[in-house]
Design a protein that fits this description.
Layout lengths: L2 H6 L1 H4 L5 H9 L2 E5 L5 H11 L3 E5 L24 H12 L4 E5 L5 H8 L4 E4 L4 H14 L2 E8 L2 E8 L8 H4 L18 H20 L8 E6 L4 E6 L11
Parallel strand pairs: 1-2, 1-4, 2-3, 4-5
Antiparallel strand pairs: 5-6, 6-7, 7-8
Bound molecules: zinc ion.
């Protein structure tokens, strides 16, 4: 790290649990963020501000006026612009040291596998089950940690599938069969604006911890947030030994 970086990241480096060593891991890391919407916005902003050296951002959608109520990485000027590109502009403004790769078309599972091959962590900020299942299979196969988040209405959830550990459950253990709901998109429903910020910010925190091997991740725990009662609940998640994907 150069002098500027030492200054920029000094409030991380001052934390004994992170220090110079931990920050260097962040600076040398590469994260894949799938989705630059409500969840992807805080994830991308916090990972960029924290110094994650390389970010691959996937989103094939363009910024719409209805997105701006909660997708805080985008601006009114970005309406009509691809979301990954719009997010890249915001990241450049916050931290020009970050190398951003944008994927502006819809990725297949094979393409996700190529994108995930060299990253340290994958963050699922998508809004549909098809992408969630595909990322789960890709991360399982490549043994990459996957930070999974979802938000709808006033409720959200977050967990980590750390496939670097053989004992980790997978997304399919949690949701074995969604049948006809597979293409249901959260974007078609109402979403409480700060909810996506809270879930996305928690995803960013988990991603940074996984990069640094710091603390205890959410592997094996599903965290559920109800913003109406403002209560977090934790459910224990175990591997399904009959899971069609990971067993
Ligand atoms: Zn499984």
């Amino acid at each position: 790290m150069n002098d500027n970086q030492l200054l920029r990241y000094s409030r991380h480096i001052l934390l004994p649990q992170i220090g110079y060593e931990g920050q260097e891991k962040i600076v040398n890391s590469h994260a894949l963020i799938v989705g630059a919407g409500g969840l992807g916005a805080p994830v991308a902003l916090y990972l960029a501000a924290s110094g994650v050296g390389k970010l691959t951002l996937c989103d094939f959608d363009v910024v719409d006026l209805t997105n701006l109520q909660r997708q805080i990485i985008h601006t009114t000027q970005s309406v009509g612009v691809n979301k990954a590109v719009s997010a890249q502009h915001a990241i450049d403004a916050i931290n020009p040291d970050i190398v951003v790769q944008t994927i502006q078309q819809k990725s297949t599972e094979v393409e996700f596998a190529q994108l995930a091959e060299n990253v340290d962590v994958v963050i699922d900020c998508s809004d549909n089950f098809a992408t969630r299942y595909a990322l789960n299979r890709v991360c399982l196969k490549l043994k990459k940690p996957l930070v999974s988040g979802a938000a709808i209405g006033f409720e959200g959830q977050i967990t980590v599938f750390d496939f670097r550990n053989a004992s980790s459950p997978c997304y399919h253990c949690l949701y074995p069969d969604v049948g006809s709901d597979a293409e249901m998109r959260c974007a078609d429903n109402g979403v409480f604006a700060p909810l996506v910020g809270m879930i996305g910010t928690a995803q960013a925190a988990e991603a940074l911890k996984l990069i640094m091997h710091l603390g205890e991740s959410l592997q094996g725990r599903l965290l559920l947030l109800d913003t109406l009662s403002m209560q977090w609940r934790t459910i224990k998640l175990s591997r399904d030994h009959a899971c069609a994907v990971c067993s």
